[in-house]
Amino acid sequence: MKRFEGKVSIITGGGSGLGRAAAKQLASEGAKLVLVDLNMKGLEESKQEILQDIPEATIELVEANVAKEEEVEKYVQFTLDTFGQIDSFFNNAGIEGKQNLTEDYGIEEFQRVVDVNLNGVFYGMKHVLKVMKEQGHGSVVNTASVGGIRGVGNQSGYAASKHGVVGLTKNSGIEYGQFGISVKAIAPGAILTAMVEGSLRQMGGEDWEATGREFVKANPMLRFGKPEEVGYLVAFLLSNQADFINAVVVPIDGGQSYKY
């Protein structure tokens, strides 16, 4: 099923993890992609992985720091100059930050995490929603987190920023639904990406895999999620099939947030 045939999608954080998984799925369904990341090497790896399976895929790469508004404007304008439209937007780039008790959490570290996870999402929405409003259609999926639904110990910056993403999502969905635009967020739990592995290494050091086995006991399915499972969800939420899903957050966490 080619739900994205003739459509253009921007994916931030496209150089790894959830962004790469979503890019593969969208490309398999016909989307023309603009992948954005601060890491050009990761972007090139994503492109090559996709082209190995889908040689006809159309993929453009933009190296940009989503925490800087002028660089967000750059990737939006590049997309318009190249393809003339933006049909869907996976506003996904994010970082975890260091782990510490709130009293020991550095101010600079807090600001760094918020700049990427919250400000970067806001800048992306600000500039992409304007384009979609002029078009009269579009869909946006922001990456929040289980940490945006409930607290996450020792991660003040991450939890605060992801709660902010939830608020921005609901607010923009209310504002832009009248223009034929849906805005929603996903709230991944423990999805086994490089970022989650980094978090486990912070907690468990060299014995991070044992820490991971304990960590997944927090969800009823007793396992990590797979990036491609998130990719399937993102593709559905960005498709026309999900147009009437708006201003909500969809968990994909194996049931980890069920108590909340």
Q: How would you describe the overall organization of this protein?
A:
Helix content is 47%, strand content 15%. The chain is α/β, with parallel strands linked by helices and 260 residues long. The protein has a seven-stranded parallel β-sheet, with helices on both faces. Strand 4 (88-91), helix 4 (107-135) and strand 5 form a beta-alpha-beta unit. The longest helix has 29 residues, at 107-135. It is globular, with a radius of gyration of 17 Å.
Report the CATH topology name of the largest domain.
Rossmann fold
The shape, in one word, is globular
* Parts with pLDDT < 50 across at least 5 consecutive residues: none
Quickly name the level 1 CATH class of the largest domain: Alpha Beta
Radius of gyration: 17 Å
CATH architecture of the largest domain: 3-Layer(aba) Sandwich
**Biggest β-sheet strands, sense, barrel:** 7 strands, parallel
Helical content stands at 40-55%
What name goes with the CATH superfamily of the largest domain?
Answer: NAD(P)-binding Rossmann-like Domain
By DSSP, the count of extended strands is 7
